[in-house]
Amino acid sequence: MNRRRRTAILIDGSPSFAKDLAREIERNYAVRILSEPQHALTMIKLRETAKNSLFYLGEVLVTETKVQINNKIGIGIVVGNEEELSYELAVIDAAYQGALKETKNWTLLFEEEERRIRENKTTRERAILKTKVDFEMMDVE
C-alpha cells in the first residue's frame, strides 16, 4: 500500500484508527519529535480544465509534524488545526519508513478501514439521493 493511499485512509477514517496505530508504535519504540506540530499556510494549485493551465486558488492552513524512530524520519501533514492527527501520521509514516514489524500486520487493518469509509460514503450518498427530485416523472401539460 502506497503512502498516499495510506494517508488518505488515516485522514478520512475513524479518529481512533490512527490513534491506535500510533500508540502501538509508541509502546514499542522510542519516538523522537524532530519538529513539534506547527501551523503553516500552503498554496493550493489547481488545473483549469478549459485551457489546461495551472493557477493558485489560494492558501490553506496545514499542520506539520516530523518524528524519528530508529533513524527513520516520518512526516505528518494535514489540512487544518489538527496537531494530534499530524503527530499520529508522522509516527505511522516513520514506522513504515523503518519497515517496523508492526506494519506488516497493518495492511488488513487499512483495507478494512478503507471498506468502512466506502460504506459510510455510500450510505451518505443514498440518504442525499432520497431527497433528489426526478423532473422526468413530473407531468407537464
Which percent range describes the beta-strand content?
A: 25-35%
- How big is the Rg? 20 Å
> Treating each run of at least 4 consecutive H or I residues as one helix, how many helices?
4
The helix content, as a percent range, equals 40-55%
Mean pLDDT: 91
In terms of per-residue confidence, which ranges show pLDDT below 50 for 5 or more consecutive residues? none
H/E series, N to C?
Answer: HHEEEHH
Please indicate the count of domains: 1
User: Which class of secondary structure composition applies to the elements?
Assistant: alpha+beta
Strand order of the largest sheet: 1-2-3
**Count the strands?**
3
Instruction: Characterize the biggest β-sheet.
Output: 3 strands, antiparallel
Distance between the termini: 57 Å
**Spatial shape:** extended
Overview of this structure, please?
This protein has 141 residues and is α+β, with helices and mostly antiparallel strands. The chain has one domain. Helix content is 45%, strand content 30%. It has helices spanning 3-12, 15-28, 83-97, 106-129, and strands at 32-48, 53-69, 72-79. Strands 1-2-3 form a three-stranded antiparallel sheet. A hairpin with a 2-residue loop joins strand 2 and strand 3. Helix 1 crosses helix 4 (106-129) and helix 2 (15-28) crosses helix 3 (83-97). It starts with a helix and ends in a 12-residue tail after the last helix.
